[in-house]
Structures are given as structure tokens and as C-alpha cells.
Design a protein that fits this description.
The structure is a homodimer of 326-residue chains. Chain A is α/β, with parallel strands linked by helices and 326 residues long. Chain A has helices spanning 14-25, 76-88, 130-146, 164-172, 200-212, 247-255, 274-277, 308-324; strands at residues 4-9, 30-37, 45-48, 51-54, 56-57, 69-72, 92-95, 124-126, 148-156, 219-223, 233-241, 260-262, 283-291, 297-304. In chain A, helix 3 packs parallel to helix 5 and helix 3 (130-146) crosses helix 8. The longest helix of chain A has 17 residues, at 130-146. The termini of chain A are close together. Chains A and B meet through strand 9, strand 10, strand 11, strand 13 and strand 14 of A and strand 9, strand 10, strand 11, strand 13 and strand 14 of B.
Chain lengths: 326, 326
């Protein structure tokens, strides 16, 4: 079996560290692995598959290593500065930032949803926004079957989505990372605000939904909210379809889609919750019920581990997709 | 100035205790006041306006006191058993439970929204659901001006809505009150589940919205969620209107409505949040922005103190409404 040279940029961060765990856990076929970071974290040691590695400082020459895959998980500025250099070295970049997601020649991939697009890459593949990934998994089979007309998202996002800074604010009750205390509070504010009154996070959900489903006719709006939860995002999704449906069709369509798990037995208080889902690679869907306020309307509730399926796992799955077709 | 004989049923609970504070704070004209509760809490002493009172056990004879107003805040079963007796004694019952809300001859009152209906009572006036109250305040002036076609609610509800049991579960990280741990979690489950897959809380928001706005043509759906916040509910509201609007009209309509405060300066990270709103009697509205996914669409975010405006303050305001017309 062929083995690959892999580098992880931002390996000391929350998503980068989880990429390592996922590469280990899924036994990704690795020949050589390199860990790259800013000057601040360079020199630290990282253990991977029982070996110790020293984190190297990222610079223009970091990619002269016949790399096959470079995972970027160090934020938008680092991706903006170094991703193209990495791609030009011949590696495929899988980028967790939002920098390239909406670029026309950059595929935006959720492996269960639009795998073929990954092969149209020009060296950079974008990993979608975490809340979008966990929403798009249930949306894809429903769209294929009943054609989505409109989507309304309201999110309940965990502090791990902001990295270690967010977790510290929650656990220490301070406000070093967020502009306001997050403990015992809700902040309708994720990423920065745009002139149209939406946050960047909201516009990511709106635009990425259309791009991944490859259908600009779908109408989407979003309200994204940080809640005092350590890990796993929840999303309340309201859907309107072109086609009529029966509820048993909805269940069948969802339960047969890879990566989606139905957890919906409300009479026994069973529904997806962050505490149950943390550590899982699946997207859990529950509270599935007809919305009687519109023709062909449906309400659902999804929960997923935003660091795993919402980031690290999805990124590694993209690489797996490419090597399985080699 | 005329003074009134008042009784509070459930005075030792979270809402009942806040009714006392609100009666004191607003200097409600009281001749005599009585505190009634279950056998368990009877005999306790309560201080009100610098006097000490002994809590009496509630029974069929508790209302033989020429009472003018009886506030019920002891849950649905107590209201079901005693509210009609209290009303038959000649008092006006202001009931915080959901038992009578949808009954045809029981007015469901938010004083800023439908004050005149309060005078059509037959001895019982219902105080609406907490999440409904804080949603209906901004909805009312928008409905009057642009006519609401459809409302989609997603709530972020504080544990104080469950009384002291909910607060203890959050603060002690246990699950004595809720079926699952609420700390660092989200529970898409408030009140019990119905056969249609909705919770009673969701159906309250749907049905009470139509009743208070006195318009059954409005389409409403809801997803209600408990979040690990001590006090103050937040609601993400998506609206579709019959009439077109300009954003400056929306701001004007909202800011001129009593009980509504706009808090919407996102460039300076200003938006309504539970920690800021706790203790206030107003409903705060922010994140006001056009929803581009539908004609005449609008997204807003409301936060209010669910124990005060969502329960105690609204109840006392109903009584004030009646005495000011005497």
C-alpha cells in the first residue's frame, strides 16, 4: 500500500491536534509526517504513533519535502500567506480556514456530499465551516429527494469552535477571548460583523450551503449564536421543500445517508445533545417533525462534534477520498 | 387612592417571590396581602414592605377574604384546582400557568399588546408563556404595520424558567430536575412531548402568538431549547411580512413601542444578552436585519428576563391595567 508524506500546519492548536488524533485513529497511510507552527510553538515536541516529533517553524521553505498532503489549521492569515506555496510544491492543501472557500477553482468538500468535486482541485481544497458541515449532511439527501427551496438556520455553537481561548473563557468565567462573558450567557455574535448586519459566520453558512449543494437557487438565512457549551455545535434547521413528503420518507432518506445518525425518540427523552455527541464523527439528527406553518415544511435539530466532523475528521476524510482513487 | 386586597399563591417559589418584589418595587396599592402555598411551605415567614407575614396553607377556604386580586404562581395543578374557587369569591385571578390560556373566555394578556381584552375577563386572566411574551412585544407593532405572514422561533431558554430545580441542576452540574445534564449542554426539550413531535412549550408559542395578536391567519412554528444560562431567555425570530418595508421603518416601529428597547450596534459588539438584561422589565431587541431569503423577510434577536417580564412583571402589569380603569 502506498504511503504518503503529510504535514500539519498549526499542529499545536485544537483542530491541528485533533487532526493528529484522527490520522492516528483512522490509520492514515503515512510515510513521513511533519509538524509546522508559528515561531511561538516551534521547538515543542509532539507525540504521534508512539514517536516524538519536534514542531518546526513554518516558513517559505517548509514545503520542500515532497509532501503529498498539507493540512492547514492555523487560521486564515497563515493559510493566506502559505497555502499557495504549499500547493505549488506539488502537495494537495486541505485548508480549514475560510480564506479560499468561496473561490471558484477551490472545491469545498464534504466527502459524503460532493466527493467528486474534490478531484477538480488545483492544489487547494477547502474544508467547510463547522456549522455548515453538520447541517449539509442531513440536507443533502433531503435536497436530492424533495428539493430544498429555503433554509433557516439558528445555531447554538460551542466555545471549542474558538479554540483554546474560547474554552478558557468558559471554564474560567472570564472574557479574554470573547468581547463579553460567555459563561451563563448567549452571544449572537460569531466571527466579525459585516455591513449588511450579518456576521461572517452567518454568511459562511448561507454561501457555503449553496456552493456545497451546487444550487444557487436555494434560499438560505442564518443566525449564529455562541452558547456556554464546551464542545459540539447544535443547529435548529427549518426547511421548506418544493416537493411534498411523508414523514416516513424523511426518516428513510436520512437514515440511509452515510455519516448521519438519527436520534429521535422523544417519548423516551432521546434527542441529540452536545454531551452525548462529543468525540463522535457522525452528525446526529433529531426533533424531526413537520412544520405546519408552510407547505412542505420540516423542522430538524442537528448536533455534531465541531472539532471532529466539523473540522479535523472532515479534513482527513478529504485526503482519504483522494488516496482511495489514486 | 383605593387600595386592594391581594393574595399570592406560590409565594415561596421563584416567580411568586418575584411577584412580591415587583409589587413592592412598583408600589402597588395594597390594603391587605396574603401569602398562600402548599402544606410544605406553609408556616414559613415572608417579609414584604418591612413587615413579616406567615405563609398560609392553601385550601378551599383561602379565598374568603374579600380579595381583589389573586396571583397564581404554583404550577398548573394548583391553578386547575383552586383558580375557579378564587374567581368565584369575586377576585380577579391572574394565572401564570398554561391551564386556562387557550380557553375562549379567558383573556391572554400582554398589557402593551392587547390591554382592552383584559376587561372581558370572567374572573380569570392568563399570563402568557415567557418566551411568547418577549417575542410578542416586538411582533405586535411590526404586525400592525406590515402584517406578519409567518414566524419561525428558535429559543435559547434559561434554567430559571424551570424554577429553583433548574437553577440547582445548572449550578451543581447534576440532573435532578432535567432528564439530562444541562451544564455545558443544550436540551431541545422544554415541557413534555406531544404526539405531533412538538413539545407543549413549542405549541404554547405557536398558539399563544395567534391568540394574543388575535389573528389565526399568522403561520407560526417553533423549536424550544434549554441552554446552560441561569436567567433570561433569548429567541431567534425569523419573520415574513405581507407588506414590503424599509429597515428604518422597522427601527422606528420598534423603538416607539412601549416595553421594547433596541440594543443593536453590532460594530461596537452591542446586542442583547442574558447577563445584561437580567433584572430588567423591558424586552431587548437586536441583530435586526433583512432576511434576503424571502420577500419581506426580517431576522431579529430578543432577550428578556423570563422571571420578570416573562412572568411576574407582566402579571402585576395586568393588575395595574385593571385598577387604572376602575
Amino acid at each position: 500500500m502506498k504511503k504518503y508524506n503529510v504535514a500539519v500546519v498549526g499542529a499545536t492548536g485544537l483542530v491541528g491536534g485533533t487532526i493528529l488524533k484522527v490520522l492516528e485513529g483512522r490509520n492514515f497511510p503515512i510515510e513521513n509526517i511533519y509538524f509546522l507552527s508559528s515561531k511561538k510553538s516551534a521547538g515543542n515536541s509532539i507525540s504521534f504513533k508512539n514517536n516524538k516529533y519536534i514542531v518546526e517553524e513554518l516558513d517559505e521553505n517548509s514545503f520542500d519535502k515532497s509532501l503529498d498532503f498539507v493540512f492547514f489549521a492555523a487560521g486564515g492569515q497563515v493559510s493566506e500567506r502559505f497555502a499557495k506555496t504549499a500547493a505549488n510544491s506539488g502537495a494537495v492543501v486541505i485548508d480549514n480556514s475560510s480564506v479560499f472557500r468561496m473561490e471558484k477553482d477551490v472545491p469545498l468538500i464534504v466527502p459524503e456530499v460532493n466527493p467528486k468535486k474534490a478531484f477538480d482541485n488545483h492544489g487547494i481544497i477547502a474544508n467547510p465551516n463547522c456549522s455548515t458541515i453538520q447541517s449539509i449532511l442531513p440536507l443533502k439527501p433531503l435536497h436530492d429527494r424533495f428539493k430544498i427551496r429555503r433554509v433557516i438556520y439558528s445555531t447554538y455553537q460551542a466555545v471549542s469552535g474558538s479554540g483554546m481561548g474560547g474554552i478558557r473563557d468558559l471554564e474560567e468565567g472570564e472574557m479574554k477571548f470573547y468581547p463579553h462573558q460567555i459563561r451563563s450567557n448567549t452571544l449572537p455574535h460569531i466571527d466579525s460583523f459585516l455591513d449588511n448586519g450579518y456576521t461572517k459566520e452567518e454568511m459562511k453558512m448561507i454561501n457555503e450551503t449553496k456552493k456545497i449543494l451546487n444550487d444557487d437557487s436555494i434560499k438560505v438565512t442564518a443566525t449564529t449564536v455562541r452558547v456556554p457549551v464546551k464542545n459540539c455545535h447544535s443547529v435548529s434547521i427549518n426547511l421548506e421543500f418544493e416537493e411534498p413528503f411523508e414523514m416516513d420518507q424523511v426518516y428513510k432518506v436520512l437514515e440511509s445517508f452515510p455519516g448521519v445518525k438519527i436520534k429521535d425518540d422523544v417519548k423516551n427523552n432521546v434527542y441529540p445533545m452536545p454531551l452525548d455527541v462529543s468525540g463522535s464523527d457522525d452528525v446526529y439528527v433529531g426533533r424531526i417533525r413537520r412544520d405546519f406553518s408552510v407547505d412542505n415544511g420540516l423542522n430538524i435539530w442537528t448536533v455534531a462534534d465541531n472539532i471532529r466532523k466539523g473540522a479535523a475528521t472532515n479534513a482527513v476524510q478529504i485526503a482519504e477520498l483522494l488516496i482511495n482513487k489514486h
